[in-house]
Amino acid sequence: MSPTQIITFPDVAALSEGLAHYVARISKESIKRHGKFTIALSGGSLPKQLANLAKDSSIDFAHWHVFFADERCVPLDHEDSNYLLAKTYLFDHVPTLPREQIYTIDSDLVNDPSEAAEDYISQLAKVFATKDSVRFPVFDLILLGVGPDGHTCSLFPGHELLEEKTAWCASIEDSPKPPSSRITLTLPVVNHAHHIAFVAAGAGKQDMLHQILDSQGDLPAQLVKPTAMGTLTWFLDDAAAAKVTSATSKGLERL
Ligand SMILES: O=C1O[C@H](COP(=O)(O)O)[C@@H](O)[C@H](O)[C@H]1O
C-alpha cells in the first residue's frame, strides 16, 4: 500500500491553492491516460476550497465527469444539498463543464433513499461500464471531508454501512448528522480510487485529526485505505494539523 502523505499549509487560502494545483495535475494526467477525468466531490466545508479551480485556465473541464461522494436526500436547490454547494463554488464558474457530466441525486427520488441510491448506481454504471463488467468504479480522484466524529462521505462511526462489501452506493436513513436521509459511496468504492484526498481545516478538527492520523482504529476516515495502486493524501491547514505527530510535509513543493 502507498504511504499516506500529509501536507500542511499555513492557512485556508494556501490550502485551497495547493488543492487546486493537485486536482489540476491529476485531471491532466487522467485525461491524457484515458480521455476523461472522473472525480467525486464531498459536501460540507470542501466545495468552498475548490473555488480556485475555476481560475485555472489550463484545466480541461470539458472532459470532467463529476459525481458526489455523498448527497443528502433533499432537492437540488435545498440549503443542505451538497450539489448546491459545489454549484455555488465551482460549477457556476466553469461553463465549459458540461452539465450532463455532473451526476446528481435524482430529485424525484429524495423521499425514497434506497431508490435514489439504486438510481445513483445506474448513473455510475453509465460512466464506469456496467455493474457486471467491473467490480467497482475506479475514480481518478475522490475528495473527502472528515467530520468532528471521524465520519467521511455519509459513513458514520459504528454504522452498519461500514460493513458494506459489494454495493457501489447505499442509502442511510438514520444519519446522526442531519439531514437523516442520505446516499453515499461505499468504502470499497472509495478505496478503489486511483487517488483519494482528504481536506480538513480549522482548529475544531485538531483532536479528531490527531486520533485519525496518529493511531490505528476503526473510525470511518481510518477505514479509507487505498488499494495497492492508489494514493492517499491529506490536505490540512496548520490549525487543523496542530496536534498531528505523524510526519507531515509543507505545502506546494510536495505536489
Ligand atoms: O455531512 C457531511 O459532512 C462531511 C464533513 O463535513 P465538514 O463540513 O466537517 O467538512 C462531508 O465530507 C460530507 O460530504 C457531508 O455530507
Automatic annotation (TrEMBL):
Function: Hydrolysis of 6-phosphogluconolactone to 6-phosphogluconate.
Record-level Gene Ontology MF annotations: 6-phosphogluconolactonase activity
Top EC group: hydrolase
Pathway: Carbohydrate degradation; pentose phosphate pathway; D-ribulose 5-phosphate from D-glucose 6-phosphate (oxidative stage): step 2/3
Protein name in UniProt: 6-phosphogluconolactonase
Reaction catalysis annotation: 6-phospho-D-glucono-1,5-lactone + H2O = 6-phospho-D-gluconate + H(+)
NCBIfam families: pgl
Family (UniProt): Belongs to the glucosamine/galactosamine-6-phosphate isomerase family. 6-phosphogluconolactonase subfamily.
UniProt keyword annotations, A-Z: Hydrolase
Organism, as annotated: Entomortierella parvispora
Domain Glucosamine/galactosamine-6-phosphate isomerase: 11-234
UniProt xrefs under InterPro entries: 6-phosphogluconolactonase_DevB, 6PGL, Glc/Gal-6P_isomerase, NagB/RpiA_transferase-like
EC number: 3.1.1.31
Gene Ontology biological-process entries: carbohydrate metabolic process; pentose-phosphate shunt
